[in-house]
Amino acid sequence: MTTTKEKPQDTRGLAGQSVGDTAVCSVNQTELIYRGYEIADLAANATFEEVAFLLLIGHKPSDAELREFRDELASMRPIPDGLKTLLNDIAGDPPAAHPMGILRTGVSYLSHFEQDTEDNSPEAELRKSKRLLAQIPTIIGYGQMVRDGKTPVDPDPSLDHAANLLWCLSGSDPSELASKVMDVSLILYAEHDFNASTFAGRVIASTEADLHSAVIGAIGALKGPLHGGANEKAMEMLAEIDQFVSAGRGSVEDFMHRAFEEKRKLMGFGHRVYKQGDHRAGILREWGLKYANDVAPDTKKWFDMGDEVIRIMLEEKNIHPNVDFPCGMTYYALGIPVPQYTPIFVASRITGWCAHIMEQHADNRIIRPLANYVGPDLRKWNG
């Protein structure tokens, strides 16, 4: 009798490996939970500020706590004049740096003028986390306005986090629906346990480096197209499909079959954890489609095309979309420039990053895994 050996699990990239404990978030096949609250519940019933408070402080805020938190964040939004000068230098054309590079530099600049930079106490880290949460949308918006050749606007303390972000990006008052769609997207992106950027931040924090250093490292990790940059690449792929079809070269299905033959990596699909679908994708698609139908009907074509791509991927590859796929279409409908998709991710995920960095510092052991050596056998230098 012969037996079939099971194929050993591919653990490269720490696939399937648990590397630590966290009370911040749980990710599994059926649920995404922030400190005990499931993501669909939060997206339907909470605001981003409430979720930010939950992640950073650890419990659902009371009405009084939420008012104080919102007021505190609004007062922290302005950025130093020196940073504005720097943003004018690096966001203009030339050199027109990538918005994620601009944001990384902006956060680094803030660290030099942060009174609590070298203080890793829980109280100081919470203050730093709030200031970064408040100032990141200002940096994003200022940089984009410079890129557009427009005069940047000051943050609006009367607006909530999502609406203020849209205001800073465009200098136009956002509609209630646009603000709601952005608010939901920020909730969906706020936290996702030991993803690449969060883990990078925790590794840095485990050396007892300061919070800003850990956040800067996380921004660098998020920039990659296999992580946060996937939402940009997903929209770029849809634009490529549109050009392919418009030029009469074939159908959406023809494009996808060619992509399969060329073994192209199709961004916005698949997930290391979710094999039966990303819980967040359907929620964001629904809100994005509502905005397209109600406000921007010319953008509905992207959702129709996206649905066709999803159908083909499911039928032929059994691969589900992740949240980055509808994010591309949704942000495009909102009129957001594609290079700003990943910085907006930061405006949300800063809450999860800071929660994890504080958690790491509170119960720390340096993260130092082992490696499997596959190099040459021992040999003599003079042999």
Task: Please give a handful of descriptors for the protein shown.
three-stranded antiparallel beta sheet; Cytochrome p450-Terp, domain 2; single chain; 2% strand; 383 residues; mainly alpha; Citrate Synthase, domain 1; 16 helices; 3 strands; 58% helix
Explained architecture:
The chain has 383 residues and is an all-alpha fold. It has two domains: 25-225 and 339-362, Orthogonal Bundle (Citrate Synthase, domain 1); 230-333, Cytochrome P450-Terp, domain 2 (Cytochrome p450-Terp, domain 2, Orthogonal Bundle). It contains 16 helices and three strands. Strands 1-2-3 form a three-stranded antiparallel sheet. Helix 7 (161-170) packs across helix 8 (176-189) and helix 11 (230-246) crosses helix 15. The longest helix is centred in the middle third of the chain and has 26 residues, at 122-147. It is globular, with a radius of gyration of 22 Å.
